[in-house]
Amino acid sequence: MTLEPNLKESPVLIVDDQLMIRVLLTRHLKQSGFTNVADVTNGQEALDALKAKKYDLVLLDINMPVLDGYATLQRIKADETLRDVAVIMVTAVDEIESVARCIQIGADDYMPKLFNPILLDARILSLLELHALRRRLGQPRQQARVNGC
């Protein structure tokens, strides 16, 4: 699969209540060549930002004030205008139950906050390429069926 040349221009939103994590992720993405990176401090701000501007990818923490990552992810995936946004959970919560819960809700991937930069870049670029391919083909993201519905 060949990467689109402008993939690193895709809008990326970082959602974390910890300033240090937002700065670290933003700095890393910009050093990796991403040119369109924004950040917010909680889930409600993320939803507001997603309604105001089109983002292709969200890096989402779980433990946050106002609206946590689980509720934010649920609202993103429940909203017809947002559900195609790729979401990677980047969090200190590392219990397998949390990973499973996020994937069941609709997260595309899950990474620890102490991320490996090479792995993070690979996962981001892979999801952005998939997002671009779906957009070109006009195919929405497939939603999991719950309880046979």
Order of helices and strands: EHEHEHEHEH
CATH structural fold name: Rossmann fold
User: At CATH's second level, what is the architecture?
Assistant: 3-Layer(aba) Sandwich
CATH homologous superfamily caption: Response regulator
How is the largest sheet built, in terms of strand order?
2-1-3-4-5
CATH class: Alpha Beta
What structural class should be given to the helix and strand makeup?
alpha/beta
Largest sheet: 5 strands, parallel
Distance between the termini: 33 Å
Uncertain spans, ≥5 residues at pLDDT below 50?
Answer: 142-149
The portion of residues forming beta strands comes to 5-15%
Structure report:
- By secondary structure, the chain is α/β, with parallel strands linked by helices.
- The protein has one domain: Rossmann fold.
- The chain is 43% helix and 15% strand.
- The protein contains 5 helices and 5 strands, in the order βαβαβαβαβα.
- The protein has helices at residues 19-31, 43-52, 69-78, 96-105, 117-137; strands at 12-15, 37-40, 57-60, 86-91, 109-112.
- The protein has a 5-stranded parallel beta sheet with strand order 2-1-3-4-5, with helices on both faces.
- α1 links the parallel β1 (12-15) and β2.
- It is globular and about 35 Å long.
- Mean pLDDT is 88; it is low at 142-149.
